[in-house]
Protein backbone atom coordinates (compact mmCIF):
# COMPACT_ATOMS: atom_id res chain seq x y z
CA UNK A 1 0.00 0.00 0.00
CA UNK A 2 1.54 3.34 -1.10
CA UNK A 3 1.10 6.14 1.43
CA UNK A 4 -0.42 9.05 -0.48
CA UNK A 5 -0.21 12.69 0.50
CA UNK A 6 -3.64 13.34 -0.99
CA UNK A 7 -6.47 11.11 -2.16
CA UNK A 8 -9.34 12.72 -4.05
CA UNK A 9 -12.63 10.81 -4.15
CA UNK A 10 -14.48 11.56 -7.39
CA UNK A 11 -13.35 12.62 -10.84
CA UNK A 12 -16.12 14.98 -11.87
CA UNK A 13 -15.30 18.59 -12.69
CA UNK A 14 -14.59 19.35 -9.01
CA UNK A 15 -12.26 16.40 -8.31
CA UNK A 16 -10.49 16.71 -11.68
CA UNK A 17 -10.01 20.49 -11.39
CA UNK A 18 -8.63 20.12 -7.86
CA UNK A 19 -6.32 17.33 -9.06
CA UNK A 20 -4.97 19.64 -11.73
CA UNK A 21 -4.48 22.56 -9.31
CA UNK A 22 -2.77 20.28 -6.79
CA UNK A 23 -0.37 19.03 -9.47
CA UNK A 24 1.19 22.51 -9.25
CA UNK A 25 2.72 21.22 -5.98
CA UNK A 26 5.11 18.36 -5.18
CA UNK A 27 2.96 15.58 -3.70
CA UNK A 28 1.75 12.00 -4.23
CA UNK A 29 -1.80 12.48 -5.45
CA UNK A 30 -4.30 9.76 -6.31
CA UNK A 31 -7.87 10.08 -7.59
CA UNK A 32 -10.30 7.23 -6.80
CA UNK A 33 -13.39 7.08 -9.01
CA UNK A 34 -16.18 4.52 -8.78
CA UNK A 35 -17.01 4.71 -12.50
CA UNK A 36 -14.71 3.56 -15.32
CA UNK A 37 -13.87 7.08 -16.55
CA UNK A 38 -13.83 10.75 -15.57
CA UNK A 39 -16.97 12.89 -15.95
CA UNK A 40 -19.49 10.06 -15.50
CA UNK A 41 -21.57 11.80 -12.78
CA UNK A 42 -23.34 15.17 -12.81
CA UNK A 43 -20.50 16.71 -14.81
CA UNK A 44 -21.58 14.91 -17.97
CA UNK A 45 -25.23 16.00 -17.79
CA UNK A 46 -25.93 19.66 -17.10
CA UNK A 47 -26.70 22.87 -19.01
CA UNK A 48 -23.03 23.74 -19.57
CA UNK A 49 -23.54 27.40 -18.73
CA UNK A 50 -20.72 29.47 -17.27
CA UNK A 51 -23.08 31.69 -15.34
CA UNK A 52 -22.16 35.36 -15.16
CA UNK A 53 -22.94 35.38 -11.40
CA UNK A 54 -26.01 37.68 -11.18
CA UNK A 55 -28.24 34.93 -9.82
CA UNK A 56 -26.31 33.72 -6.76
CA UNK A 57 -27.26 35.10 -3.33
CA UNK A 58 -24.82 37.91 -2.42
CA UNK A 59 -22.16 37.04 0.19
CA UNK A 60 -22.67 33.31 -0.37
CA UNK A 61 -19.92 30.92 -1.40
CA UNK A 62 -21.94 30.29 -4.56
CA UNK A 63 -21.67 33.97 -5.49
CA UNK A 64 -17.97 34.23 -4.67
CA UNK A 65 -16.82 31.10 -6.49
CA UNK A 66 -19.15 31.68 -9.46
CA UNK A 67 -17.91 35.19 -10.15
CA UNK A 68 -14.24 34.30 -9.57
CA UNK A 69 -14.56 31.04 -11.51
CA UNK A 70 -16.17 32.65 -14.55
CA UNK A 71 -13.25 35.09 -14.77
CA UNK A 72 -10.79 32.18 -15.09
CA UNK A 73 -12.54 30.53 -18.06
CA UNK A 74 -11.12 32.52 -21.00
CA UNK A 75 -7.51 31.78 -20.08
CA UNK A 76 -8.12 28.25 -18.81
CA UNK A 77 -9.92 27.21 -22.00
CA UNK A 78 -6.86 28.37 -23.97
CA UNK A 79 -4.35 26.56 -21.72
CA UNK A 80 -6.33 23.34 -21.79
CA UNK A 81 -7.86 23.65 -25.26
CA UNK A 82 -11.51 22.89 -24.38
CA UNK A 83 -14.62 24.42 -25.99
CA UNK A 84 -15.82 27.63 -24.28
CA UNK A 85 -17.56 30.69 -25.66
CA UNK A 86 -18.83 33.90 -24.06
CA UNK A 87 -22.19 34.03 -25.86
CA UNK A 88 -24.26 36.20 -23.48
CA UNK A 89 -27.61 35.36 -21.82
CA UNK A 90 -31.10 36.75 -21.34
CA UNK A 91 -33.48 36.25 -18.42
CA UNK A 92 -36.87 36.66 -20.07
CA UNK A 93 -39.89 38.16 -18.36
CA UNK A 94 -43.37 37.63 -19.77
CA UNK A 95 -45.27 40.17 -17.64
CA UNK A 96 -44.83 43.61 -16.10
CA UNK A 97 -44.88 41.90 -12.65
CA UNK A 98 -41.66 40.13 -13.59
CA UNK A 99 -39.83 43.46 -13.30
CA UNK A 100 -39.50 43.01 -9.53
CA UNK A 101 -37.47 39.81 -10.03
CA UNK A 102 -35.40 41.39 -12.80
CA UNK A 103 -34.60 44.33 -10.51
CA UNK A 104 -33.60 41.91 -7.75
CA UNK A 105 -31.26 40.13 -10.18
CA UNK A 106 -29.79 43.49 -11.27
CA UNK A 107 -29.18 44.33 -7.61
CA UNK A 108 -27.53 40.96 -7.06
CA UNK A 109 -25.36 41.62 -10.13
CA UNK A 110 -24.28 44.92 -8.55
CA UNK A 111 -23.58 43.34 -5.15
CA UNK A 112 -21.74 40.37 -6.70
CA UNK A 113 -19.74 42.77 -8.86
CA UNK A 114 -20.90 41.28 -12.18
CA UNK A 115 -20.30 43.73 -15.00
CA UNK A 116 -22.23 43.98 -18.27
CA UNK A 117 -25.82 43.43 -17.05
CA UNK A 118 -28.71 45.59 -18.26
CA UNK A 119 -32.49 45.50 -18.72
CA UNK A 120 -33.69 45.46 -22.33
CA UNK A 121 -37.22 45.72 -23.74
CA UNK A 122 -38.90 42.78 -25.51
CA UNK A 123 -38.33 44.46 -28.89
CA UNK A 124 -34.64 45.04 -28.18
CA UNK A 125 -34.30 41.37 -27.20
CA UNK A 126 -36.09 40.19 -30.36
CA UNK A 127 -33.81 42.37 -32.47
CA UNK A 128 -30.89 40.33 -31.12
CA UNK A 129 -32.74 36.99 -31.03
CA UNK A 130 -35.67 37.03 -33.50
CA UNK A 131 -37.08 33.64 -32.41
CA UNK A 132 -37.85 34.86 -28.89
CA UNK A 133 -41.59 34.92 -28.14
CA UNK A 134 -43.60 38.06 -28.91
CA UNK A 135 -44.98 37.72 -25.36
CA UNK A 136 -41.63 38.66 -23.81
CA UNK A 137 -42.07 42.08 -22.22
CA UNK A 138 -38.51 42.69 -21.11
CA UNK A 139 -35.47 40.89 -19.82
CA UNK A 140 -32.07 41.07 -18.20
CA UNK A 141 -29.12 40.81 -20.56
CA UNK A 142 -25.80 39.51 -19.17
CA UNK A 143 -23.03 39.90 -21.72
CA UNK A 144 -20.42 37.85 -19.81
CA UNK A 145 -22.47 34.65 -19.55
CA UNK A 146 -20.80 31.76 -21.37
CA UNK A 147 -21.15 28.17 -22.55
CA UNK A 148 -18.69 25.31 -22.07
CA UNK A 149 -18.54 21.63 -22.98
CA UNK A 150 -18.50 20.30 -19.39
CA UNK A 151 -17.23 16.78 -20.08
CA UNK A 152 -14.52 18.00 -22.48
CA UNK A 153 -13.40 20.49 -19.83
CA UNK A 154 -13.31 17.72 -17.21
CA UNK A 155 -11.34 15.41 -19.53
CA UNK A 156 -8.89 18.26 -20.25
CA UNK A 157 -8.41 18.90 -16.51
CA UNK A 158 -7.81 15.20 -15.83
CA UNK A 159 -5.41 14.75 -18.76
CA UNK A 160 -3.39 17.77 -17.66
CA UNK A 161 -3.38 16.57 -14.04
CA UNK A 162 -2.22 13.12 -15.19
CA UNK A 163 0.55 14.54 -17.37
CA UNK A 164 1.72 16.49 -14.29
CA UNK A 165 1.92 13.36 -12.15
CA UNK A 166 -1.55 12.75 -10.66
CA UNK A 167 -2.64 9.09 -10.80
CA UNK A 168 -6.23 8.00 -11.48
CA UNK A 169 -7.74 4.65 -10.52
CA UNK A 170 -11.16 3.77 -11.90
CA UNK A 171 -13.82 1.25 -10.82
CA UNK A 172 -12.85 2.09 -7.23
CA UNK A 173 -15.95 2.75 -5.17
CA UNK A 174 -14.98 3.93 -1.69
CA UNK A 175 -17.10 2.00 0.79
CA UNK A 176 -15.35 2.53 4.12
CA UNK A 177 -13.01 5.11 5.66
CA UNK A 178 -11.53 5.34 9.11
CA UNK A 179 -8.60 7.13 10.74
CA UNK A 180 -5.51 5.50 12.26
CA UNK A 181 -2.69 7.64 13.68
CA UNK A 182 -3.70 10.73 11.72
CA UNK A 183 -3.93 8.77 8.45
CA UNK A 184 -7.09 7.95 6.54
CA UNK A 185 -7.49 4.25 5.71
CA UNK A 186 -9.76 3.89 2.73
CA UNK A 187 -11.37 0.68 1.55
CA UNK A 188 -12.86 0.21 -1.92
CA UNK A 189 -15.53 -2.24 -3.07
CA UNK A 190 -12.95 -4.49 -4.75
CA UNK A 191 -11.22 -5.03 -1.41
CA UNK A 192 -8.23 -2.72 -1.95
CA UNK A 193 -6.91 -0.47 0.82
CA UNK A 194 -5.37 2.99 0.53
CA UNK A 195 -3.66 5.29 3.02
CA UNK A 196 -3.47 9.08 2.86
CA UNK A 197 -2.71 12.19 4.91
CA UNK A 198 -5.38 14.38 3.29
CA UNK A 199 -8.70 13.17 1.95
CA UNK A 200 -10.53 15.35 -0.57
CA UNK A 201 -14.23 14.56 -0.71
CA UNK A 202 -15.42 15.47 -4.23
CA UNK A 203 -18.01 12.70 -4.51
CA UNK A 204 -20.84 14.90 -5.86
CA UNK A 205 -24.28 13.55 -4.86
CA UNK A 206 -22.53 11.07 -2.53
CA UNK A 207 -20.30 13.61 -0.77
CA UNK A 208 -22.59 13.62 2.28
CA UNK A 209 -22.08 9.85 2.69
CA UNK A 210 -18.27 10.23 2.52
CA UNK A 211 -18.32 13.04 5.11
CA UNK A 212 -20.78 11.15 7.33
CA UNK A 213 -18.44 8.10 7.47
CA UNK A 214 -15.99 10.27 9.41
CA UNK A 215 -17.55 13.39 10.88
CA UNK A 216 -20.08 14.08 13.63
CA UNK A 217 -21.23 17.09 11.63
CA UNK A 218 -23.65 15.33 9.25
CA UNK A 219 -24.71 16.58 5.82
CA UNK A 220 -27.74 15.58 3.81
CA UNK A 221 -27.71 15.76 0.02
CA UNK A 222 -30.96 15.56 -1.91
CA UNK A 223 -30.60 14.57 -5.57
CA UNK A 224 -32.53 17.08 -7.66
CA UNK A 225 -33.09 15.71 -11.14
CA UNK A 226 -33.03 17.84 -14.29
CA UNK A 227 -34.21 16.41 -17.62
CA UNK A 228 -33.26 17.75 -21.06
CA UNK A 229 -33.77 17.33 -24.77
CA UNK A 230 -31.15 18.18 -27.37
CA UNK A 231 -31.81 19.46 -30.88
CA UNK A 232 -29.80 18.70 -34.02
CA UNK A 233 -27.18 21.23 -35.14
CA UNK A 234 -29.43 22.08 -38.10
CA UNK A 235 -31.43 24.22 -35.64
CA UNK A 236 -28.50 26.21 -34.28
CA UNK A 237 -30.10 29.36 -35.77
CA UNK A 238 -32.77 29.26 -33.02
CA UNK A 239 -30.65 31.25 -30.59
CA UNK A 240 -27.05 32.33 -30.27
CA UNK A 241 -27.60 33.46 -26.69
CA UNK A 242 -28.76 31.49 -23.66
CA UNK A 243 -32.43 32.14 -22.93
CA UNK A 244 -33.43 31.72 -19.28
CA UNK A 245 -36.87 32.32 -17.80
CA UNK A 246 -37.36 33.98 -14.41
CA UNK A 247 -35.80 31.87 -11.62
CA UNK A 248 -38.00 29.92 -9.18
CA UNK A 249 -37.41 28.47 -5.69
CA UNK A 250 -36.18 25.25 -7.34
CA UNK A 251 -33.57 26.89 -9.58
CA UNK A 252 -32.98 28.83 -12.75
CA UNK A 253 -35.94 27.34 -14.67
CA UNK A 254 -36.11 26.01 -18.22
CA UNK A 255 -33.55 27.39 -20.66
CA UNK A 256 -33.04 27.24 -24.40
CA UNK A 257 -29.38 27.58 -25.25
CA UNK A 258 -26.83 26.86 -27.93
CA UNK A 259 -24.11 24.38 -26.99
CA UNK A 260 -20.45 24.88 -27.90
CA UNK A 261 -20.92 22.42 -30.76
CA UNK A 262 -23.96 24.15 -32.29
CA UNK A 263 -26.78 21.99 -30.91
CA UNK A 264 -29.66 23.55 -28.98
CA UNK A 265 -30.12 22.30 -25.40
CA UNK A 266 -33.56 22.61 -23.80
CA UNK A 267 -34.25 22.01 -20.09
CA UNK A 268 -33.87 21.20 -17.21
CA UNK A 269 -36.71 20.21 -14.92
CA UNK A 270 -36.10 20.24 -11.15
CA UNK A 271 -37.52 17.32 -9.20
CA UNK A 272 -36.20 15.86 -5.91
CA UNK A 273 -35.68 12.11 -6.27
CA UNK A 274 -34.71 9.38 -3.80
CA UNK A 275 -32.13 7.54 -5.94
CA UNK A 276 -28.84 9.47 -6.28
CA UNK A 277 -27.66 7.55 -9.35
CA UNK A 278 -30.70 6.93 -11.55
CA UNK A 279 -30.71 9.31 -14.49
CA UNK A 280 -33.69 8.01 -16.43
CA UNK A 281 -35.75 10.49 -18.35
CA UNK A 282 -39.54 10.37 -18.04
CA UNK A 283 -42.43 11.30 -20.36
CA UNK A 284 -43.72 13.74 -17.72
CA UNK A 285 -40.34 15.43 -17.32
CA UNK A 286 -39.72 15.77 -21.05
CA UNK A 287 -43.25 17.04 -21.72
CA UNK A 288 -42.77 19.69 -19.01
CA UNK A 289 -39.45 20.75 -20.58
CA UNK A 290 -41.02 21.11 -24.00
CA UNK A 291 -44.16 22.90 -22.84
CA UNK A 292 -42.20 25.47 -20.84
CA UNK A 293 -39.52 25.97 -23.51
CA UNK A 294 -42.22 26.83 -26.08
CA UNK A 295 -43.12 29.81 -23.89
CA UNK A 296 -39.67 31.30 -24.66
CA UNK A 297 -39.35 30.11 -28.27
CA UNK A 298 -42.76 29.14 -29.77
CA UNK A 299 -41.19 27.92 -33.03
CA UNK A 300 -39.01 25.20 -31.42
CA UNK A 301 -39.20 22.22 -33.79
CA UNK A 302 -40.06 18.96 -32.01
CA UNK A 303 -38.77 16.99 -35.02
CA UNK A 304 -35.34 18.43 -34.32
CA UNK A 305 -34.90 16.46 -31.09
CA UNK A 306 -32.07 13.94 -31.40
CA UNK A 307 -31.67 12.78 -27.82
CA UNK A 308 -32.69 13.26 -24.20
CA UNK A 309 -30.82 12.92 -20.91
CA UNK A 310 -30.90 13.93 -17.28
CA UNK A 311 -28.50 14.95 -14.52
CA UNK A 312 -28.70 15.08 -10.72
CA UNK A 313 -27.97 18.22 -8.72
CA UNK A 314 -26.30 17.64 -5.33
CA UNK A 315 -28.65 19.85 -3.34
CA UNK A 316 -27.56 20.34 0.30
CA UNK A 317 -30.19 21.43 2.81
CA UNK A 318 -28.18 24.53 3.81
CA UNK A 319 -28.39 25.82 0.20
CA UNK A 320 -24.74 26.92 -0.08
CA UNK A 321 -21.50 25.22 -1.22
CA UNK A 322 -19.33 23.65 1.48
CA UNK A 323 -15.70 24.12 0.44
CA UNK A 324 -13.51 23.69 3.51
CA UNK A 325 -11.60 21.45 5.88
CA UNK A 326 -13.92 19.60 8.22
CA UNK A 327 -14.15 21.15 11.67
CA UNK A 328 -13.89 17.87 13.55
CA UNK A 329 -11.94 15.56 11.19
CA UNK A 330 -8.37 16.76 10.69
CA UNK A 331 -7.25 16.43 7.08
CA UNK A 332 -10.71 15.92 5.52
CA UNK A 333 -11.41 18.56 2.86
CA UNK A 334 -15.10 18.67 1.93
CA UNK A 335 -16.73 19.74 -1.32
CA UNK A 336 -20.36 19.20 -0.48
CA UNK A 337 -23.53 20.57 -2.07
CA UNK A 338 -21.78 21.61 -5.28
CA UNK A 339 -24.93 22.08 -7.34
CA UNK A 340 -25.36 24.89 -9.89
CA UNK A 341 -23.30 27.10 -10.39
CA UNK A 342 -20.74 24.38 -9.58
CA UNK A 343 -19.45 24.09 -13.12
CA UNK A 344 -18.93 27.83 -13.50
CA UNK A 345 -17.31 27.88 -10.06
CA UNK A 346 -15.06 24.84 -10.52
CA UNK A 347 -11.86 26.68 -11.51
CA UNK A 348 -12.10 29.03 -8.50
CA UNK A 349 -13.13 26.26 -6.10
CA UNK A 350 -10.13 24.23 -7.31
CA UNK A 351 -7.67 27.07 -6.96
CA UNK A 352 -8.91 27.92 -3.43
CA UNK A 353 -9.03 24.26 -2.29
CA UNK A 354 -5.55 23.44 -3.61
CA UNK A 355 -4.04 26.45 -1.83
CA UNK A 356 -5.71 25.43 1.47
CA UNK A 357 -4.49 21.84 1.14
CA UNK A 358 -0.97 22.88 0.08
CA UNK A 359 -0.76 25.17 3.14
CA UNK A 360 -1.99 22.41 5.43
CA UNK A 361 0.59 19.91 4.09
CA UNK A 362 3.27 22.60 3.63
CA UNK A 363 3.82 21.49 0.03
CA UNK A 364 6.55 22.90 -2.20
CA UNK A 365 5.80 24.14 -5.70
CA UNK A 366 6.19 21.67 -8.57
CA UNK A 367 8.59 23.60 -10.79
CA UNK A 368 7.98 21.12 -13.64
CA UNK A 369 4.24 21.86 -13.78
CA UNK A 370 3.15 22.31 -17.40
CA UNK A 371 -0.24 24.08 -17.72
CA UNK A 372 -0.65 23.28 -21.42
CA UNK A 373 -2.76 20.45 -22.79
CA UNK A 374 -3.75 20.08 -26.44
CA UNK A 375 -7.10 18.66 -27.54
CA UNK A 376 -7.30 15.78 -30.03
CA UNK A 377 -7.06 17.09 -33.62
CA UNK A 378 -10.52 16.91 -35.22
CA UNK A 379 -10.72 16.38 -38.98
CA UNK A 380 -14.03 18.25 -38.96
CA UNK A 381 -12.11 21.42 -37.96
CA UNK A 382 -9.38 21.01 -40.61
CA UNK A 383 -9.03 22.81 -43.94
CA UNK A 384 -8.57 20.61 -47.03
CA UNK A 385 -4.81 21.24 -46.94
CA UNK A 386 -4.57 20.41 -43.23
CA UNK A 387 -6.54 17.21 -43.81
CA UNK A 388 -4.26 16.17 -46.70
CA UNK A 389 -1.24 16.79 -44.46
CA UNK A 390 -2.79 14.81 -41.58
CA UNK A 391 -3.59 11.86 -43.88
CA UNK A 392 -0.01 11.92 -45.22
CA UNK A 393 1.19 11.52 -41.61
CA UNK A 394 -1.42 8.91 -40.67
CA UNK A 395 -3.83 7.42 -43.18
CA UNK A 396 -6.36 6.69 -40.42
CA UNK A 397 -7.32 10.40 -40.52
CA UNK A 398 -8.82 9.55 -43.92
CA UNK A 399 -11.02 6.76 -42.55
CA UNK A 400 -14.27 8.33 -41.36
CA UNK A 401 -16.03 6.25 -38.69
CA UNK A 402 -18.80 8.63 -37.52
CA UNK A 403 -20.40 10.27 -40.53
CA UNK A 404 -22.78 12.59 -38.67
CA UNK A 405 -19.98 14.34 -36.74
CA UNK A 406 -17.19 13.45 -39.22
CA UNK A 407 -14.85 11.63 -36.84
CA UNK A 408 -11.94 9.55 -38.10
CA UNK A 409 -10.36 6.31 -36.90
CA UNK A 410 -7.21 8.23 -35.90
CA UNK A 411 -9.19 10.47 -33.51
CA UNK A 412 -10.96 7.50 -31.89
CA UNK A 413 -7.69 5.65 -31.38
CA UNK A 414 -6.16 8.71 -29.77
CA UNK A 415 -9.17 9.07 -27.44
CA UNK A 416 -8.52 5.51 -26.24
CA UNK A 417 -4.73 5.90 -26.00
CA UNK A 418 -4.66 9.10 -23.93
CA UNK A 419 -4.42 9.07 -20.10
CA UNK A 420 -7.04 8.81 -18.74
CA UNK A 421 -8.39 7.27 -21.96
CA UNK A 422 -11.78 6.10 -23.20
CA UNK A 423 -12.73 2.54 -22.27
CA UNK A 424 -16.27 2.36 -23.64
CA UNK A 425 -18.56 3.87 -26.30
CA UNK A 426 -19.61 6.87 -24.22
CA UNK A 427 -15.98 7.62 -23.30
CA UNK A 428 -15.14 7.81 -27.01
CA UNK A 429 -18.25 9.91 -27.63
CA UNK A 430 -17.38 12.47 -24.95
CA UNK A 431 -13.81 12.82 -26.22
CA UNK A 432 -14.26 13.01 -30.00
CA UNK A 433 -18.05 13.29 -30.53
CA UNK A 434 -18.37 9.98 -32.43
CA UNK A 435 -22.06 9.16 -31.89
CA UNK A 436 -23.14 12.66 -30.85
CA UNK A 437 -24.87 13.40 -34.16
CA UNK A 438 -28.31 12.87 -35.63
CA UNK A 439 -28.09 9.06 -35.84
CA UNK A 440 -26.94 8.83 -32.18
CA UNK A 441 -24.48 5.97 -32.83
CA UNK A 442 -26.96 4.10 -35.01
CA UNK A 443 -24.35 3.51 -37.72
CA UNK A 444 -20.94 3.82 -36.06
CA UNK A 445 -21.44 1.61 -32.97
CA UNK A 446 -20.06 -1.65 -34.51
CA UNK A 447 -17.06 0.19 -35.99
CA UNK A 448 -16.18 1.90 -32.70
CA UNK A 449 -16.60 -1.42 -30.90
CA UNK A 450 -14.08 -3.01 -33.29
CA UNK A 451 -11.59 -0.24 -32.50
CA UNK A 452 -12.15 -0.53 -28.72
CA UNK A 453 -11.73 -4.31 -28.99
CA UNK A 454 -8.43 -4.00 -30.87
CA UNK A 455 -6.99 -1.17 -28.76
CA UNK A 456 -7.96 -2.55 -25.33
CA UNK A 457 -7.54 -6.26 -26.12
CA UNK A 458 -11.18 -7.00 -25.26
CA UNK A 459 -13.74 -9.32 -26.80
CA UNK A 460 -16.86 -7.78 -28.40
CA UNK A 461 -18.94 -9.19 -25.53
CA UNK A 462 -16.86 -7.21 -22.98
CA UNK A 463 -17.52 -3.82 -24.58
CA UNK A 464 -20.05 -1.58 -22.84
CA UNK A 465 -21.87 1.62 -23.65
CA UNK A 466 -21.12 3.18 -20.25
CA UNK A 467 -19.44 0.65 -17.96
CA UNK A 468 -21.13 -1.66 -15.42
CA UNK A 469 -23.40 -4.10 -17.24
CA UNK A 470 -24.32 -1.92 -20.22
CA UNK A 471 -23.08 -4.57 -22.69
CA UNK A 472 -23.94 -4.13 -26.36
CA UNK A 473 -23.80 -7.72 -27.58
CA UNK A 474 -24.49 -11.03 -25.83
CA UNK A 475 -22.49 -13.32 -28.14
CA UNK A 476 -22.45 -14.71 -31.68
CA UNK A 477 -25.84 -15.80 -33.06
CA UNK A 478 -24.21 -18.90 -34.60
CA UNK A 479 -22.83 -19.92 -31.19
C1 LIG B 1 -29.61 19.61 -14.36
C2 LIG B 1 -28.34 20.32 -13.98
C3 LIG B 1 -27.98 21.51 -14.60
C4 LIG B 1 -26.83 22.19 -14.21
N1 LIG B 1 -26.43 23.27 -14.92
C5 LIG B 1 -25.31 23.93 -14.56
C6 LIG B 1 -24.86 25.04 -15.30
O1 LIG B 1 -25.41 25.36 -16.35
N2 LIG B 1 -23.78 25.72 -14.85
C7 LIG B 1 -23.14 25.37 -13.70
O2 LIG B 1 -22.23 26.08 -13.30
N3 LIG B 1 -23.50 24.28 -13.01
C8 LIG B 1 -24.56 23.54 -13.43
N4 LIG B 1 -24.93 22.43 -12.75
C9 LIG B 1 -24.12 21.99 -11.62
C10 LIG B 1 -22.87 21.24 -12.07
O3 LIG B 1 -23.17 20.32 -13.07
C11 LIG B 1 -22.27 20.54 -10.85
O4 LIG B 1 -22.05 21.51 -9.85
C12 LIG B 1 -20.96 19.85 -11.14
O5 LIG B 1 -21.02 19.03 -12.28
C13 LIG B 1 -20.59 19.01 -9.92
O6 LIG B 1 -19.39 18.34 -10.17
P1 LIG B 1 -18.83 17.30 -9.13
O7 LIG B 1 -17.49 16.94 -9.57
O8 LIG B 1 -19.02 17.83 -7.76
O9 LIG B 1 -19.86 16.07 -9.20
P2 LIG B 1 -19.87 14.81 -10.18
O10 LIG B 1 -19.64 15.18 -11.57
O11 LIG B 1 -21.13 14.06 -9.88
O12 LIG B 1 -18.61 13.97 -9.71
C14 LIG B 1 -18.59 13.23 -8.52
C15 LIG B 1 -17.87 11.94 -8.80
O13 LIG B 1 -17.69 11.21 -7.59
C16 LIG B 1 -17.82 9.84 -7.87
N5 LIG B 1 -18.15 9.14 -6.64
C17 LIG B 1 -19.27 9.28 -5.89
N6 LIG B 1 -19.22 8.46 -4.82
C18 LIG B 1 -18.04 7.80 -4.89
C19 LIG B 1 -17.43 6.81 -4.08
N7 LIG B 1 -18.02 6.33 -2.98
N8 LIG B 1 -16.22 6.33 -4.44
C20 LIG B 1 -15.61 6.79 -5.56
N9 LIG B 1 -16.16 7.72 -6.38
C21 LIG B 1 -17.36 8.22 -6.04
C22 LIG B 1 -18.93 9.80 -8.90
O14 LIG B 1 -18.91 8.60 -9.65
C23 LIG B 1 -18.64 11.02 -9.74
O15 LIG B 1 -17.85 10.74 -10.87
C24 LIG B 1 -26.05 21.69 -13.16
C25 LIG B 1 -26.40 20.47 -12.55
C26 LIG B 1 -27.51 19.77 -12.99
C27 LIG B 1 -27.82 18.44 -12.42
Topology of helices and strands:
Blueprint: E1 3-9, H1 13-22, E2 29-32, E3 49-50, H2 61-80, E4 84-85, E5 89-93, H3 99-111, E6 117-121, H4 122-128, E7 138-142, E8 146-148, H5 150-163, E9 167-169, E10 174-180, E11 183-188, E12 193-201, H6 207-212, E13 221-231, E14 242-245, E15 255-258, E16 264-267, E17 271-273, H7 283-296, E18 305-316, E19 322-325, E20 332-336, H8 342-361, H9 384-393, E21 400-402, E22 407-408, H10 409-417, H11 425-432, H12 445-456
Parallel strand pairs: 1-2, 1-12, 2-9, 5-14, 12-20
Antiparallel strand pairs: 3-8, 4-8, 5-7, 6-7, 10-11, 11-12, 13-16, 13-17, 13-18, 15-16, 19-20, 21-22
Helix pairs in contact: 1-5, 1-8, 2-8, 10-11, 10-12
The structure holds flavin-adenine dinucleotide (FAD).
Which spans of ≥5 residues are poorly predicted at pLDDT below 50? none
Rg computed from alpha carbons, rounded to a whole number of angstroms: 22 Å
Shape: globular
Total tally of structural domains: 3
- Please indicate the percent range of residues in DSSP E strands (runs of 2 or more): 15-25%
Number of helices: 12
Integer average pLDDT: 97
Helix content: 25-40%
CATH topology name of the largest domain: FAD/NAD(P)-binding domain
The number of E-state strands comes to: 22
- Quick one: CATH class of the largest domain? Alpha Beta
Which hetero compounds are present in the coordinates?
Answer: flavin-adenine dinucleotide
Distance between the termini: 43 Å
- The CATH architecture category of the largest domain equals 3-Layer(bba) Sandwich
Amino acid sequence: MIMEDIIIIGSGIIGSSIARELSKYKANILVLEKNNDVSCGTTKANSGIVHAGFDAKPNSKKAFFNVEGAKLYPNLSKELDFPFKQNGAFVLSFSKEGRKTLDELMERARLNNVKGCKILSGDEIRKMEPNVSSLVVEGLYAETSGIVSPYEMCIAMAENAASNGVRFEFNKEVINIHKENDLFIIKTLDGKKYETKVLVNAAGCHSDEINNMLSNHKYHIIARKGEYVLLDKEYSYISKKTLFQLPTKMGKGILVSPTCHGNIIVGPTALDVSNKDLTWTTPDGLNEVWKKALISVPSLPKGGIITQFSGLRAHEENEDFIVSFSEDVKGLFNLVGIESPGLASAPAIASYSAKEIANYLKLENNLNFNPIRKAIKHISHMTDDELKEAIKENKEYGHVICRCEVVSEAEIKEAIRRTPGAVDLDGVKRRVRAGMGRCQMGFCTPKIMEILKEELGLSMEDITKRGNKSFIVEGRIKD
